[in-house]
Amino acid sequence: QANEARTREISEALNLFFLGDEILKQLQIKSLARRMDLDNLASLMSAEGITSNDTVQTTPNNAAEDDPDPAKKPRSVGCYDFDRDSEPVFLPIWDSRRQAVTTQFCTLKTIEHATGETVFGRESLRGHDDPKDHLAYDLTVCEAASNAMRAAEARGRRVATCIQTHVKTLTSRDTRVAYFEALADIPDAMREYLFVRVDGILPGTPVSTLQEVFQSLRPYCGQRVAKLPFGDTDLARFRGLGIFMFGWNCPPLPADYRLTDNQQARLTQFAKSAAQMGASVYLSRPPSGAVIDQAIESRVRFLAGPRVAPMVTTALSPVRMEIADIRRRNNALVLT
After folding, report:
1. pTM of the model
2. Which of 54, 99, 172, 286 has the most C-beta neighbours closer than 10 Å?
């Protein structure tokens, strides 16, 4: 009973976090009391309608939620088709403050015929950088997330999902209109739970471009997220744009890696600068349990990656997960 009461408390807090008091009262969302078992997700996946085959088999160092491994040999631009032999996957995002998985990144896992290689996210574009190429990827992810949210709704549940778009998609008129039409097809109540992350932001991206991108997105999603290059702490250019969350991806690093003093200082400054703007930060793909602990010490609120929770092929509703669960998972990964 104590566990159920605690889970109800978390569920209500999550709904308030995403929607606010008035919308929560209108939706009257109910939640199932459960806790994430990171060693064996069978019971949780069964509750969500996920089979044991739906867990994506990856290793901690090769499972990106979107970025290619920069250490890999660059591939030439050539013919590609990321719809064929691709599937959407979901990487849970853990909220360190609420000790729960609250949302997830939706991305694509692609198996390339020519090389037999498995790639994630925009790496499937194989170097193509035209707005129409990014739009095609963005629409595929948007449709996958929409389908997952509708499927959860049909089961009487709600899932929060973070999808990606690209600066180039949103700064070209034709691709921006096509993308917004896809977002507009998602029912309003579901869009309240939809996060849209903007990729492709660089230190030299003009402030006018950032204003155009994030202001135009405002009516089409619940929250907006900005992904920045690892180590970029310049958030002043985002002031007044209503960004909910800023994030970094860790580069590929050894499994026993610890952040250097300088890296942790920059991460702490990143979180502090975001907090001054009323925003949070996420860190994706921490390579080790030590980096997870350092991120929490630096007041990083959200963490994602195979060291945090495994990738799955069906979106998860909010679920309890404590830091002790993550540490047990990392200990098990180290032992294997």
Report:
1. 0.79
2. 286
Dist CA 43 CA 172 (whole Å): 45
Phi then psi for residue 127, to 5 deg, are 90, -10
Question: CA 56 to CA 6: how far, in whole Å?
Answer: 30
For residue range 55-67, list pLDDT tens digits in order: 555 544 444 555 4
Tokens of 168: 């180039």
pLDDT tens column, 281-290: 999 999 999 9
Alpha helix (H) residue ranges in 20-130:
21-27, 42-48
What is the enclosing helix (H) or strand (E) of 94? strand 86-95
**Beta strands 194-199 and 302-304: pairing type?**
unpaired
Q: For residues 50 and 54, what is the distance between their CA atoms, to the nearest angstrom?
A: 6
Q: Count of CB atoms within 10 A of residue 335's CB? A: 6
Rounded (10°) angle between helices 323-335 and 289-297: 150
Structure tokens at 331: 């200990």
- Of 280, 303, 281, 279, the closest CA to residue 291 belongs to 303
